[in-house]
Amino acid sequence: MERRNFLKVVAAGATIVAVNPSLIRGNLYASDGQLYVAYEKTQIVDAAGIPIKASKLETEVNYIFNYPYASTPCILVNLPKPTQQDVELTAENGEKYVWKSGVGKERTIVAYVAICTHQLTHPTPNDSFIMYVPEKTKTMAYDKSGVIVCSSHLSAFDAKAGAKVLGGAATQPLSAVILEHAADDTLWAVGILGMDKFQDYFKAFKPELKQFYNGTAEAKKLVSISAKTVKLTEFSNDLIQY
Ligand code: FES
User: Fold this and answer.
1) pTM passes above 0.90
2) CA of 211 to the centre of ligand 1 (A)
């Protein structure tokens, strides 16, 4: 099992401690200050339920899957170049943590929670204002592409560096999905790194979640065993990108 995506957590003013997420069961921090939560280890599969092979992911395509809850969308992208490693990030409460790297043979595969940390914009079956913008596509949010953009207020996040904020209204990175890349080339989600917005999201979008997931209980169900992924173009009717 290749586990390049080990994370490190930096406690304020303390020595960096390497933590293997697969060894953590439960919260690393208390519920209001947690920076890493291990969730059910979940295999990423295609719409037919067949395990996705990391080496078969198309480059610079937005794939969407829901994790760790049935209604919380995440973006999976195979970047054109290897990601940075050991990126120090800062949560909006000032706490520092480290995103280790992407996974896959070339360290190009990343996944982030696609709920904007500014005002919770996220992909729905109707539309998506948040997505990875390929290197050759222009965006108004940042002078270079190859970044994740939330077009609601033009926030840009560095896809190759733990979704660090590059510009716009957002004040903290998107939460990262911690991935494992297995020896058989399959991909697994194992936890969430960064200050998540899940509870705010459930509260703010109660009516929509009721509509799309037949009630909030379904929407808040934890994903387990497998998570289906499709291209964003198949998930949302309308992609809005500035
Ligand atoms: S909601 Fe994403 S930038 Fe404002």
Assistant:
1) no
2) 23
